């Protein structure tokens, strides 16, 4: 499993899209202190958005912000991100039948 973390600065040059947009791919962290900055995709749209990233850690909870609307924030226990039926690490594309 991988998580895509977006780096704030742009790295130009080369034809590699990941390098061009400053995207770093690494293994999904299991340590809650390393979750800040990680990206997640919610399997359903109960919270209206699918793509989230962790912006802060508060004790046993992490604060998630929607990618399309950073003002939309939710707090969840960090262990709920381990449930792969609800959360997928990284930003996943929609299946063809849901477009």
Furnish the topology, listing elements before pairings.
Elements (H helix, E strand, L loop, with lengths): L1 E5 L10 H4 L2 E5 L11 E4 L8 E8 L2 E6 L6 E5 L9 E3 L10
Describe the structure.
By secondary structure, the protein is mainly beta. The protein has one domain (2-92). It has one helix at 17-20, and strands at 2-6, 23-27, 39-42, 51-58, 61-66, 73-77, 87-89. The strands form two sheets. The protein has a five-stranded antiparallel beta sheet with strand order 6-5-4-3-7, with no helix packed on it. Mean pLDDT is 76; it is low at 1-21.
Any key phrases for this structure?
99 residues, five-stranded antiparallel β-sheet, mainly beta, 1 helix, 4% helix, two-stranded antiparallel ribbon, globular
């Amino acid at each position: 499993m991988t998580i895509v973390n977006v780096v704030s600065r742009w790295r130009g040059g080369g034809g590699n899209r990941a390098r061009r947009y400053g995207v770093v791919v690494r293994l999904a962290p299991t340590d809650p202190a390393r979750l800040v900055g990680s990206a997640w995709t919610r399997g359903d749209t109960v919270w209206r958005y699918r793509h989230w990233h962790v912006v802060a850690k508060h004790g046993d909870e992490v604060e998630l912000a929607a990618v399309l609307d950073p003002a939309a924030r939710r707090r969840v226990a960090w262990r709920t991100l381990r449930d792969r039926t609800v959360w997928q690490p990284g930003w996943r594309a929609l299946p063809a039948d849901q477009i």
